[in-house]
Design goal:
The chain is of the alpha/beta class and 265 residues long. The model has no long low-confidence stretch (mean pLDDT 97). Bound molecules: nicotinamide-adenine-dinucleotide (NAD).
Length: 265
Amino acid sequence: MGTIVITGSASGIGAATRTRVEADGHTVIGVDLRDAEVTADLSTADGRSAALAAVLEATGGVIDGLVTSAGLGPPVDAHLIADVNWFGTEVFLTGLRDALAASEGIAKVVAVSSNSTTTSPNTPDELIDAFLDMDAESVHAQIDAFETFGEGLAYAGSKTAVARYVRRHAPTAEWAGAGIRLNAVAPGATLTPLLQGGLDDENFGPMIKSFPVPTGDFGSPDQIAAWIETMLGDAADFMAGSLVFIDGGTDAMVRADDWPRTFSM
Ligand code: NAD
């Protein structure tokens, strides 16, 4: 049994993951605004530093698993979405790498990305690069320059940056080579307080409702948590850099032939 750090553990997908992981016998160190072992505001640089320090202290610098689920979505302020979804994720991925490498077994990381990575059109590469370059000023300026639905852009951009971070780092010596399996899930519309906030909004509600989900209903937090639980276990020993879509078929429907993509040499 191990120590699993879960951000966003107080609600939705994070809370459902917590329930499953604790039932498996693991110790959970939750990070959230409330109802968590580490109470912190991940929207600020000070909050993120304090949270990282508190997690390292609570775990003694040895961690067997990490799930980054803290996040916000439209209609919340676009800067807040960018700051929590990306900077509040990156701080743990980068800051806990050494503690994950110190695990006695093969450590597992599951970053919670989104199918907005591939189903939201026109996310500029410059924005994704600014996230990955840790350039908060540029991120905020690019979002502000977007005239409408900047919240959606912040969401898709931050989640794509998370996916890119996973793809870039997972196969490297510092991650796969150091006994850490870094992967991500890309959920589609999942009925949580975050989605409900969007559904209740007069602008975003109709957009979410008109977005097709081939299997029918929205997903449940536990359906996503079941995949995260699997990706924290032995089944993921041979898995690195995967972005697993759990979205009722929306990604496949929107871009059936985009993936897998061949390449030429
Ligand atoms: P949720 O609102 O139920 O849970 C999100 C958690 O993040 C909450 O406990 C909240 O308190 C925490 N959080 C928010 N801001 C924070 C801050 N500043 N500091 C610390 N914690 C903070 O939502 P959810 O749907 O379970 O979202 C979990 C993750 O799943 C998010 O990253 C979200 O983007 C992602 N996701 C959700 C959906 C969906 O349709 N629900 C789809 C794709 C991806």
